[in-house]
Amino acid sequence: MKFFIDTANLNDIKEANDLGILDGVTTNPSLMAKEGITGQQNILDHYVAICNIVDGPVSAEVISTDFEGMVREGEHLATLHKNIVVKIPMIPEGIKAIKYFNAKGIKTNCTLIFSAGQALLAAKAGATYISPFLGRLDDVSTNGLDLIAQIRLIYDNYSFNTQILAASIRHPMHIINCAELGSDVMTGPLSAIKALAKHPLTDLGLQQFLADHAKGNG
Ligand code: G3P
Fold first, then answer.
1. Which of 76, 96, 106, 202 is the most exposed place for a label (fewest CB within 10 A)?
2. 113-141 burial, b for 16+ CB within 10 Å, e for fewer?
3. Cα(194)–Cα(3) distance, rounded to whole angstroms?
4. For atom 4 of ligand 1, which residue has the closest CA?
């Protein structure tokens, strides 16, 4: 399973990248705003800064909601760096834009996926990735993991190449469960990625090894 980090925070991106396990980055307008990145040129520069840190796909989201606007924005985003993936919302105009970009060889990430029907449509349009939002489904008492399993089954039935990019990951169990279900990619915060490494028995064991070594070696 590929690991993407879901943030626009350059320090978090650098820290995850330095671990050596980072495959890509996802952003969205809310994550950009959270980092105080505003204004068209600053936003574009920030995507380039991210691409200069991570050698992997970087999702950059359009803010237009009409086909022509999405095409205009997406084509410009794709010129910024070879690793840019144009992130498109799951709306009818978005489906048309995904089809358009697919024909032009521009990679897309269809975002705001909350149902299997939406995932099926995005795959038929030729999306490179689809982003089902696990955590936000959990937030409304609906099991987000069930959606991942349903999409996996559908995509496997028809050998769709579209990759399932599990998004809105909130904690390490989401990551492990997505891996069990065969999600192609997960995108989550640095905290969830780092939490995978934590185990009290590892800490205790290391403490003991170091103490025993110190005893024997002064
Ligand atoms: O980037 C899309 C998605 O991961 C958002 O997550 O935590 O805002 O629900 P969240």
1. 202
2. bbebebbbbbbebbbbbbbbbbbebbeee
3. 12
4. 168
Out of 30, 133, 174, mutate this one to test ligand 1's pocket (max ligand atoms within 8 Å of CB): namely 133
What is the value of pTM for the model shown? 0.96
- How far, in Å, from the CA of 131 to the mean position of ligand 1? 9
Q: Give long-range contacts, CB 8 A cutoff, 24+ apart: 78-81.
A: 78/106, 80/44, 80/47, 80/48, 80/51, 81/47, 81/48, 81/51
Segment 102-126, tens digit of pLDDT: 999 999 999 999 999 999 999 999 9
End-to-end CA separation in angstroms for the chain: 44
b/e 179-217 (16+ beta carbons within 10 angstroms → b): eebebbbbbbbbebbeeeeeeeeeeeeeeeeeeeeeeee
The CA-based angle 207-212-214, given to 5 degrees, is 95
